[in-house]
Design goal:
InterPro entries: Ig-like_dom_sf, Ig-like_fold, Ig_sub. The protein is 0% helix and 55% strand. It has 165 residues and is mainly β.
């Protein structure tokens, strides 16, 4: 544990315990999903329990893809997602579900949370990249009796994402 001494009596002490006291972790960071299906994107988050002798409480959690007038636009208020997004948040984790996926849903999704403290907000970066695509099935002949099948999602940039089925 490292302790940084304050430079004046007005500055708070900062305690570093191997991990940033504010953070968001999303896994996986790249998702490929089929048009018309649904996807779930999950992030966990953490924050200090106290700042300047005040308890820290999370007041708002939300997901966004766009920023308007320097403020992130909550997906729940974005017309293109009306009736298709749901948040399931609690215990320092939040899952975004998007149903009836469209090509236009291909984007980078970021999670943000705001606390009751003036400097108490945090946005996960770089976010989760979602690619919505059609399905491609590839086959590989392993032997005369055995064939391996792969379900692949084409992505606009980079190699396709494939899973063995």
């Amino acid at each position: 544990m490292a302790l940084e001494e304050p430079r004046s009596t007005l500055e708070p002490r900062v305690v570093v315990q191997g991990e940033d006291p504010w953070g968001v972790r999303c896994t996986p960071t790249q998702i490929c999903a089929v048009k018309g299906s649904k996807v779930q994107i999950r992030c966990s988050y953490w924050h200090p329990s106290r700042i300047d002798d005040h308890d820290v409480a999370v007041e708002k959690t939300f997901w966004f893809t766009k920023v308007q007038d320097s403020e992130p636009v909550d997906l729940r208020s974005a017309s293109e997602y009306t009736g298709r997004v749901k948040y399931d948040c609690g215990n320092k984790a939040c899952t975004l579900t998007i149903t009836d996926l469209r090509d236009s849903d291909s984007d980078v999704y970021q999670f943000s949370f705001t606390t009751n403290q003036p400097t108490g907000s945090f946005t996960g970066s770089p976010g989760v990249s979602l690619s919505v695509t059609g399905v491609q099935v590839l086959t590989t002949k392993l032997s005369a009796c055995k064939t391996q099948y792969f379900l692949c999602c084409e992505r606009p940039r980079g190699f396709p994402l494939c899973s063995s089925v």
